[in-house]
Amino acid sequence: MDLTQTLSGRRSCRAYLSTPVPREKLEQVLALASRSASNSNSQPWQVHVVTGPALRRLTEDLLKAYDAGDGGADYDHQPPAGSWPEPFLGRRHELGHRLYSEAMGIARDDMAGRMAHHRRNYEFFGAPVGMVLTVSRSRRQGALVDAGLFLQALMLAARAAGLDTCAQAALSDFAPVLRRNLDIPDDELVVCGLSLGYGDPDHSSTRCRTSRVPVARFTTFHEDGGAYSRE
Ligand SMILES: Cc1cc2nc3c(=O)[nH]c(=O)nc-3n(C[C@H](O)[C@H](O)[C@H](O)COP(=O)(O)O)c2cc1C
User: Fold this and answer.
1) pLDDT, tens digit, 9 for 90 and up, residues 18-45
2) Which of 34, 102, 139, 209 could connect to 143 by a Cys-Cys bridge, CB 3.0–4.6 Å?
3) What is the pTM of this model?
4) Which sequence spans correspond to the domains of the chain?
């Protein structure tokens, strides 16, 4: 697969087949992802790969904490509910419409249906592999840039190997549960979770296609002392 195919073929996958992923394949994907650039080559990431009974135990604990509303995050990965500013709020609503209403047929006012799907985050959407990405707090906020690059590389390396993924910030809302289950020390910051496996092509959620704003809306070319204005 070339890069264009890999980049445009990657989509967040929210339903998986139970087909296991061999450890050797996981190690190859992780080795390729580790080619990511990082500030001063500091490679501040740690990855916890969770499968089998360990994944079942983690999922049980996460669901228990989710149902009890007993969470906690290591950093503000998004604004609090109700505080999303535009234009981000509009994009978030558009995703909700495409995923829940159009792809999955869950109506906008069916809050129970939407919550039930959201809850699937804590089962890693049925994926055979769950991952949790952490970075060393000692590398300060810059480590989050490196983590983002690594996460993207990981998702693309997985796609190139025929695997599907979904980055899951929802999991980092339950950092104490992850910390307890995976022995994550306090000096490691829980950045993000990830589900990985072979996507279920027949699940309704796989029909979801997300949009992107055009290049002209997020790019300003500066040339000859002037600037091309945004749209
Ligand atoms: C850092 C990050 C966190 C995310 N967290 C979640 C999540 O908790 N649950 C989820 O279903 N999708 C999550 N996503 C997936 C995004 O919704 C998705 O990337 C976006 O809508 C674009 O769609 P695409 O990945 O299919 O291109 C996350 C993506 C990123 C990059």
Assistant:
1) 999 999 999 999 999 999 999 999 999 9
2) 139
3) 0.96
4) 12-74+122-203
